[in-house]
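STRUCTURE:
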């Protein structure tokens, strides 16, 4: 018996309708499955989807800090920035042979991590990923709620299935390269457009709200996976023993053995830029007390090793110069403090900042960030407290000995400059009284910053007055060097930490100030001449060795801030 055609008048109307619908659905599916799209469009679609579906927790935290009605422009900009960053990341990772795998991984990762971020506030940093890898089956099953399964199915598996069925257009190599280049440039341009108008707000956001930006998904989980991989490789590279330096170091002996021992206080400053120091010609007298002291030498052209504390401080005391310094290997290389200690110099590091960044791990370290140790604390512990018990510190040995005391300041650490000094040092007004620098005019930001420098002036002057009574028994000297500078709104840039090659001079030019009374062994005429010469953090290690009479081939012929006649 032959089959009736679909349009057979004798066929029931319902059957004809059903067959017609089936044919329509089949036709739609056929067109969907056969339709090809550009990879660039697929990446944009997935990026938009993840910004909207996987970052609810991130935007909740942002809006808690920046109410939408008062910060519409910034919130729109931040949304565009998040899209731009994800778009750029996916463009860099996605190429036709692997694109679907990468995008499916991103979607599934975002679905899983987004659930725990939105429901438990979980931040998927490296530590959390390590903890997740160590979770046993029973603990994992305890987290498998029905809502998790539903979210994974709807926001993860379903879009992953759709991605897997998409057909990507093929391009000749030339077209593919051109398209990839164009989209990368577009992503970078979008990021720049979002950042530039709100540079001041972003400076505060990135520095003060690190936890909030850790809720970005899947950027943070992907970054954490990469970070764990890098840390693992670094651990494999780490030598079994400390890399020694200056193994040929020798201590010179004074003629007749009658020379007085040496006492240096070396101040590691924080976030002070050279052009805001009154001694260097700044229009404001930000260091009036030092200006009234005799035997003060201020260097006018000094460059830092880096633009952040974590980079600069270890570099300052390393045996590598700025070009050769590697922050990834600094922790297992000896530094100049190790050499000094081995050669009998009493080395003490007192810290009122975040730490010595590994520099003082093998010498005496004292933490002055809490009231338990620091006697001068109000809203925060003050740098002046590090001078407490100075006499006992110097005379801890049975007889006078060569001593190096390093004081790591809180200094001008931003953006809350108004907190870096006691109220009586509020000389320049009005002052920006918030760490949200974008809410203040530039002059009030500068006022707070300059007030903090005046407090450092008081601190350094107090060190000099503390050292003067020791001149009878010691050859004394004070050296002050800031770790890096600071941007204060020039070109809409704030704070510091920019890549060195593109960082403004304000972040790289630092003050170097030496107090050297005439009765010590330092060549005063050479020191005076050096103040007008270009110098850098690279001068620190050879200067310290030279001052304490230690010679080593590792610093032969390297320049110093001053020469000590041993």
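SEQUENCE:
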């Amino acid at each position: 018996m032959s089959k009736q055609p679909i349009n057979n008048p004798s066929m029931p109307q319902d059957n004809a309708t059903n067959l017609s619908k089936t044919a329509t659905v089949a036709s739609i599916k056929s067109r969907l499955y056969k339709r090809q799209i550009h990879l660039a469009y697929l990446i944009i679609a997935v990026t938009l989807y993840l910004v909207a579906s996987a970052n609810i927790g991130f935007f909740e935290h942002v809006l808690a800090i920046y109410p939408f009605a008062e910060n519409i422009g910034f919130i729109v900009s931040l949304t565009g920035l998040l899209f731009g960053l994800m778009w750029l990341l996916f463009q860099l990772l996605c190429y036709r042979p692997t694109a679907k795998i990468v995008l499916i991984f991103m979607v599934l990762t975002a679905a899983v991590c987004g659930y725990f971020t939105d429901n438990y506030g979980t931040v998927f940093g490296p530590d959390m990923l390590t903890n997740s890898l160590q979770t046993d089956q029973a603990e994992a099953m305890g987290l498998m709620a029905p809502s998790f399964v539903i979210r994974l199915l709807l926001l993860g598996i379903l879009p992953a299935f759709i991605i897997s069925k998409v057909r990507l257009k093929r391009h000749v190599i030339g077209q593919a390269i051109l398209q990839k280049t164009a989209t990368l440039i577009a992503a970078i341009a979008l990021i720049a457009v979002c950042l530039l108008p709100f540079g001041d707000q972003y400076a505060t956001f990135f520095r003060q709200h690190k936890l909030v930006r850790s809720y970005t998904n899947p950027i943070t989980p992907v970054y954490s996976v990469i970070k764990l991989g890098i840390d693992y490789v670094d651990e494999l590279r780490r030598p079994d023993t400390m890399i020694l330096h200056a193994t040929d170091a020798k201590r010179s002996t004074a003629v007749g053995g009658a020379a007085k021992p040496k006492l240096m206080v070396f101040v590691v400053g924080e976030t002070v830029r050279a052009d805001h120091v009154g001694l260097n010609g700044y229009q404001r007298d930000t260091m009036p007390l030092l200006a009234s002291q005799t035997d003060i030498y201020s260097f006018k052209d000094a460059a830092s090793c880096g633009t952040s504390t974590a980079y600069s401080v270890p570099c300052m005391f390393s045996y590598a110069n700025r070009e050769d310094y590697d922050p990834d290997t600094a922790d297992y290389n000896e530094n100049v403090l190790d050499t000094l200690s081995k050669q009998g110099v009493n080395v003490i590091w007192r810290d009122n900042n975040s730490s010595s960044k590994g520099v003082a791990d093998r010498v005496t370290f004292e933490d002055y960030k809490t009231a338990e140790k620091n006697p001068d604390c109000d809203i925060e512990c003050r740098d002046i407290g590090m001078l407490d018990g100075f006499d006992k510190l110097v005379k801890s040995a049975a007889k006078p000995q060569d001593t190096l005391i390093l004081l790591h300041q809180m200094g001008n650490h931003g953006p809350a400059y108004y907190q870096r000094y006691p109220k009586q040092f509020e000389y320049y007004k009005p002052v920006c009284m918030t760490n949200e620098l974008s809410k203040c005019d530039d002059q009030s930001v500068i006022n707070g910053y300059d007030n903090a420098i005046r407090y450092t002036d008081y601190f350094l002057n107090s060190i000099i007055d503390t050292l003067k009574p020791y001149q009878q028994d010691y050859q004394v000297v004070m050296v002050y060097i800031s770790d890096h500078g600071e941007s204060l709104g020039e070109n809409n840039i704030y704070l510091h930490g920019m890549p060195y090659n593109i960082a403004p001079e304000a972040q790289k030019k630092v003050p170097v100030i030496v107090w050297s009374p005439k009765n010590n062994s330092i060549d005063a005429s050479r020191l005076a001449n050096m103040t007008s010469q270009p110098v850098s953090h690279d001068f620190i290690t050879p200067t310290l060795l030279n001052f304490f009479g230690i010679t080593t081939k590792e610093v032969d012929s390297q320049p110093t801030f001053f020469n000590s006649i041993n």
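REMARK: The chain has two domains: 27-234, 256-517+531-553.
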